[in-house]
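User: My collaborator sent over this chain with a note saying "see what the structure looks like." That's all I know about it. Can you take a look?
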Amino acid sequence: MLETNEKQTKTLKIIRNSLLVVILGLVLWALDFNILFWIQNLIRNDVFDVIIPFYTSLGEDGIIWIALGLILFIPKKYRKTGIMVLAALLVMLVVNNIVLKNLIARPRPCWTYPEMVQLVHNPSSYSFPSGHTTSAFAVAFTVFSQHKKLGKVIIVMAAIMAFTRLYVFVHFPTDIYGGILVAAVITTFVCFMEKKISPRITEFLQKRTNK
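Assistant: Without extra context I'll predict from the sequence alone. Here is the result:
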């Protein structure tokens, strides 16, 4: 009986959280352009016009996150995390950039309003989900799953990266939201695979060492 109640509670939590995700997504979708223009009218300034395009350029092709994965791979303490980060980025490339963007084919806001002053080059890929956001949060969530303190720092970096995509007017808020959700799914998948594969690799290496 107790086990049944726990299952029902867990099911209700999943349903509740799923509804909250959908509701928040709908609210953002209704306010997409309003939020973008609010940023352009109230936050944009000459200083940010220099800093933000530079920071967002670090996310092109996941350069900053690939570099982070390689750096984490060097020390033994973070090696597994580095491998997981690189794996998350590879999964992200396929799921986000190759499949979802072309399947959904959402035009970017800068295509709809070409008269807006562009701070970065006009991207040729579709808008949803944001690749910069997905890669940033996939890395941040993956690191957080292994090292909480370092993960919190990278989550802040990822959040700033996501905001830059709104600031330079190349993504909608729902593109950012979608990217975070996709990143969470990718991280869950990578962590699941790590738990399945890691023990087998350890066992294989031990057998090789004992020979």
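A starting point for your reply to your collaborator: The chain has a mean pLDDT of 89.
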